[in-house]
Design a protein that fits this description.
By secondary structure, the chain is an all-alpha fold. It is built from ten helices and no strands. The protein has a single domain, classed as Orthogonal Bundle (Tetracycline Repressor, domain 2). It is about 70% helix and about 0% strand. Helix 5 runs antiparallel to helix 10 and helix 8 packs across helix 9. It is elongated, with a radius of gyration of 19 Å.
């Protein structure tokens, strides 16, 4: 008979996400994963396909939450939503991202020389979706007249993705949001400087 599960899968994946977020993928051994998640080695191997399989599931969970709560509003918004995105990063909270940075950004750095194609596929997809969301918001802003007619939304979207990575790496390195504050302040002023005549979202409807 199959062994009865002694864990809740969703809770175990959340704990694994927190563990990888804090310690990184490479430095976290299976024994540590067992201690931090409550999963045993057998479950990690048979239910998730091993350490990498568990990590991939945490990345998928993280990506889904990001797409729902961050990228969705960006895609539907305008320049004001771009401001909201970066102000959210800079608003003090108890979120792990304000101590450990972005899990996807951390994974990009750790997997800079790709040790896993599956991991790279997920990080590439995440940051491509982020770029598309920025581009959509900037395109809406351009249609509103908030941005000049010759404003390059593709170039600006790439700049915002790079800025996001830089901010998150600054947070991760220091273990604190505080050191990223000057970067965020300058970035928000830069975005504000792109505006021509501010137009509210109601004006687009």
């Amino acid at each position: 008979m199959p062994r009865p599960k002694r864990y809740d899968r969703s809770d175990a994946v959340k704990k694994a996400c927190d563990a990888f977020w804090q310690h990184g993928y490479g430095a976290l051994g299976v024994r540590s994963l067992e201690n931090l998640t409550g999963l045993n080695r057998f479950a990690i191997q048979t239910e998730f396909g091993g350490k990498e399989g568990l990590f991939l599931e945490t990345l998928d969970r993280y990506a889904l939450e990001s797409e729902t709560h961050l990228l969705g509003p960006l895609r539907e918004g305008s320049l004001d939503q771009v401001m909201v995105f970066f102000n959210q990063i800079g608003t003090p909270s108890q979120e792990p991202a304000q101590i450990y940075g972005c899990l996807m950004a951390n994974t990009v750095v750790e997997n800079a020389v790709p040790a896993s194609a599956a991991i790279k596929e997920r990080t590439d997809r995440h940051f491509e979706l982020l770029k598309q969301a920025f581009r959509a918001a900037l395109t809406h802003a351009k249609s509103d007249g908030q941005l000049a007619g010759d404003f390059d939304t593709e170039e600006a979207a790439a700049f915002l993705v790079g800025s996001t990575l830089g901010i998150q790496m600054t947070i991760r390195k220091a273990g604190s949001l505080k050191t990223a504050r000057p970067y965020l302040n300058v970035l928000i002023k830069t975005i504000e400087s792109w505006q021509t005549t501010p137009v509210t979202s109601a004006d687009r409807t």
